[in-house]
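Lab channel / #folding
Pinned by the channel admin:
"Please post every new chain as: sequence first, then the structure tokens as a reply. Keep commentary short and put observations after the output so the thread stays searchable."

First post following the new format, from NK:
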Amino acid sequence: MFNSLYHIFRNECPSCHKGKVFADKSFFFSMGFPKMNSHCSYCNYKFEKEPGYFFGAMFVSYGVAVLEGLLTYFCIRPFFDSNFDLWMFPIIAFVLLSLTFFNIRFSRMIWIYMFKNYSN
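Reply from TO:
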């Protein structure tokens, strides 16, 4: 699992671990919708198996965003007097909005790695 996370964060092909999935230089700090390569430049692995393949990645992105929201809440909680303060919402919203483009890339990488052929 840690080996797969290492390759996911390095934006590497799930088959050969040499080619890049996204054409963007930076996996973490790219702004805008990601530009994906259709195939791996080394092993010709096809990233999008069928139309609508990444529809399920939206659910992964939702789970990642919920986790980030909860982590943000627990990190900022000690700075407020009550458990529920309305000033927490803008902070959590800012964190979630600033991580949106990262979440798109990260969820697609998780989705690709979940459905790669592990028999090879």
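NK: The chain has a mean pLDDT of 87.
TO: also worth noting, Helices lie at 2-9, 57-76, 88-98, 100-114.
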